[in-house]
Hints:
104 residues, 5 helices, 0% strand, mainly alpha
Amino acid sequence: MSPLRLTYLALAIWGSIHPMYYFISWFNENGYDLMAMVDAWHVNAATSGLVWDLTIAAVALTVFIISETLVRRNWIALIAIPATFCIGVSCGLPLYLFLRSRPV
């Protein structure tokens, strides 16, 4: 495996573990209420801006993944979409790049 692919894989793993630590910590502190978490994301203009920034990035990444998958027929790369929306862009993007860069 090339150093670049290893870097993408390491970033995908880091991008899944690091944010989840904070999400789980928040849930342990405040209870497992998803709507309360969404409310916390919009507590002020700065956090709302960040939420919208990441949402738009996730949608753009999804459109890119779908269009690239249709052209390249790399169907396994579609797993980056649920990774993006269930974990975050910090996992979905490097995961997609890892899957896209595999040798044919």
